[in-house]
Structures are given as structure tokens and as C-alpha cells.
Write a structure and sequence with these properties.
single chain, three-stranded antiparallel β-sheet, 279 residues, six-stranded parallel β-sheet, elongated, 22% helix, alpha/beta
């Protein structure tokens, strides 16, 4: 079991409501890890999004959470903030004054006048409460400047340090999927079937089905992910077991939609089709 130093990450995560995960250079490994992280954060009610400038293709179709990925990012939003009671604002509108954009804030007749010191302008887009960069930001091109603001966690299998990172996880001996298999529980984040599947697919591709660039921890990570994907069986009366029985699923079947045993002994699939119980 690997043990990463998360002392600088945990405080950032404990107060986060939103998270941004950036994948500068996509691979099944990096995308699987990013989606596993995003889905795990969403289980903690943290709104998570994944940004990558590259589009995924059919090679990524078996991953869960692909709808969380966007290939566009705006780094030039203008945010105007008012320190003013919202219940005293009647209407917000805009107009074109000879090619000039006017934003009009109409207050209620009972409300106080808005002072200049209550107005703040930010010409940079707001980033999330916590941000993860999976790899070198240089591949982002003009959007690489995103690292100049926000609380960033840099995660990389390449031994390089980033001055903009509030925290770093560097592991030259592991692909992204292996890193996050161990990192998520250390951050108090759990693995469910979809998360385990995404990490396992990434790990299998990165290691060519555990045939290259593997260590004992690689197999341990694979076991953790595979265990997370296994459906649990109800405890049968009188079987002498205090824990639910794990219905083993072969590793090759994890990437396809599994069928689960229902309470009557039949099976059902996620598509809703079922088979009757056997006699």
C-alpha cells in the first residue's frame, strides 16, 4: 500500500464546494483517473468538472462519467460583484449605448444607493475551490495561464516540481490510475463500481494488462479496483457468514455492463431486461 503525503491537500478539500480537474494530454489512463476522481468528489457533494482540450473517441467509450468532460474553457470572463443586499435589487439588465455595453442594476425604492466601494471587478474567470492538474500544463497552450490563480494540486508520474502548485503528488513508478486508486481513500473519498471500473480500465491500458511497467503495488491497485466493481450478494440465512457474499466478476467482464442477481434468484441488467430464477 502506497502512502502519499496529503497534509496540504486535505485542508483544501475539506472546505471545497466545487472542483476542476484538468487533463492537458489525454490517454485512457489520465482520463480514467480524472473521471474516477470527479465521480468520487461528486459522491461528497462537490461539484466536479473535467477539462481537456482534446476530444475523447471510441477508445474511451467504456469509461463512466464522460459527460463531465468539456474540451472548452474560457479564461477571459468578466465578473462584476456587488456587496449589496440581494433583496434590495429589483432588476438587472443591459443596453447598447453607441457600441458601449451598459450593465444596469435597478434597486428598490426603499434600498440604499450603491456606492463605488461596493463594486468589485474581476477580469479573470473564476476557478473552482480546488483544482487538480494531471500532468504538465504546457499542452494547454494559451489556457496554461489558468494555473496562475486558484488552489492547485499537481499530480504527475514525472518527477518535476511546479511553483504554482499548493500541493503535489509525484510518483514516477505509477500511472495516474494507480496513483488515484491509493490517493482517493487517503483523502476520505470512496470507490464505487463506476469509479473502480474507470481506474481499472486506465490501469489495464497503462500496463498492457499488467504485463509492463508493473510493481507489486500495481497488482494491489488492480485488486482494490476490481473489488470495488464486485456486486454484493445478500447474506443467505444459515450460511454462517456475517458479511455479504461477493459475487465474483472476472476482470475481463468489468468493462461491460454487468448483470446482478435479484432477490428472487433471477438476474437483471442495467437496461432493465431480466431472466426468471432457475428452478
Amino acid at each position: 500500500m502506497k502512502n502519499y503525503n496529503v497534509s496540504s491537500i486535505s485542508p483544501l478539500l475539506s472546505t471545497a464546494k466545487t472542483a476542476l480537474i484538468v487533463v492537458p494530454q489525454i490517454s485512457v489512463d489520465s482520463v480514467g483517473a480524472a473521471l474516477g476522481l470527479a465521480l468520487s468528489l461528486k459522491q461528497k457533494n462537490i461539484e466536479a468538472k473535467v477539462y481537456s482540450p482534446q476530444k475523447t473517441d471510441q477508445n474511451y467509450s467504456k469509461l463512466s462519467g464522460l459527460e463531465l468532460i468539456s474540451d472548452s474553457f474560457s479564461g477571459s470572463d468578466l465578473v462584476i460583484s456587488l456587496t449589496y443586499p440581494l433583496d434590495q435589487i429589483d432588476q438587472v439588465s443591459y443596453n447598447d449605448d453607441g457600441g458601449k455595453l451598459n450593465l444596469v442594476v435597478k434597486t428598490k425604492s426603499t434600498g440604499p444607493q450603491i456606492d463605488n466601494n461596493q463594486i468589485s471587478i474581476n477580469n479573470q474567470s473564476a476557478v473552482a475551490d480546488i483544482c487538480f492538474m494531471l500532468g504538465d500544463e504546457g499542452s494547454l497552450g494559451p489556457n496554461a495561464s489558468i494555473v496562475n490563480r486558484g488552489n492547485w494540486v499537481f499530480v504527475s508520474p514525472v518527477n518535476v516540481q511546479k511553483s504554482w502548485a499548493k500541493a503535489s503528488i509525484i510518483d514516477p513508478d505509477a500511472p495516474f490510475s494507480e496513483i488515484f486508486t491509493f490517493l482517493l481513500p487517503m483523502l476520505g473519498l470512496s470507490l464505487n463500481a463506476d469509479i473502480g471500473k474507470d481506474l481499472l480500465i486506465g490501469l489495464r491500458v497503462a500496463t498492457q494488462s499488467f504485463s509492463i511497467n508493473v510493481s507489486p503495488e500495481s497488482f494491489e491497485a488492480g485488486a482494490i479496483c476490481l473489488r470495488a466493481t464486485q456486486p454484493e450478494m445478500p447474506v443467505a440465512p444459515g450460511n454462517g457468514l456475517s458479511q455479504p457474499v461477493i459475487n465474483p466478476t472476472p476482470i475481463e467482464a468489468v468493462e461491460s455492463k454487468p448483470a446482478f442477481i435479484n432477490n428472487n434468484g433471477g438476474t437483471f441488467s442495467p437496461s432493465g431486461t431480466s431472466t426468471p430464477p432457475t428452478a
